[in-house]
C-alpha cells in the first residue's frame, strides 16, 4: 500500500475513534476554556449554549490530532510537542475570540454577519491544517508523489 493511502486511512481511523469521544472532548474543552476565562476575568460567564458554538472547535481539534498522529516517520516526542503547541494555539484563539469578540463581557453577542465573526470562522477551520503542515512538512516527503530521476540518465 502506498504511504499516502496508508496516511489517509490512518487519518480516517483516528478521526473516527476521536469522534466517538467527541462529546467528552467538547465538554473537556469547554471546561478548560471556562478556567481560562476565569483567570482573565472572574465575572465572565459563558452563554448557556456555548457548547453548540464551540462544537466546530472540537471538530477542528480532532482533525489536527488525527493528522498529527498519522504523520509518517515523525518521532513520538515531536508529535507530542506539536500536539501540545497546537492545542495551546487553539485554546488561545478560542479564549480570545469567545471572551472578547463573539461574546464580550456585558455586551450583546456579535452578529454572524460581522467581519470579525467571519475571520474567527476562517481561522478556526484553517488552523488545524496550518498547525499540522508547518512543523510536519519535513516528514511529508513520502506522501508527495514526485518522479525520481535515474542517476545514470542525469
Keywords:
mainly alpha; elongated; about 150 residues
Explain the overall architecture.
With 154 residues, this protein is mainly alpha-helical. It has one domain. 69% of the residues lie in helices and 0% in strands. The protein contains five helices and no strands. Helix 1 packs antiparallel against helix 3 (50-70), helix 2 packs across helix 4 (76-102) and helix 3 (50-70) runs parallel beside helix 5 (115-136). It starts with a helix and ends in an 18-residue tail after the last helix. The model has no long low-confidence stretch (mean pLDDT 85).
SS-based structural class? mainly alpha
Counted by DSSP, the helix tally is: 5
Helix content: 55-70%
Can you summarize the main beta sheet? none
Q: Estimate nothing, just give the exact number of structural domains.
A: 1
| Record field, number of beta strands | 0
Question: Gap between N and C termini, in Å?
Answer: 29 Å
- The low-confidence parts are none
Rounded to an integer in angstroms, the radius of gyration calculated over CA atoms is 19 Å
N to C succession of SSEs? HHHHH
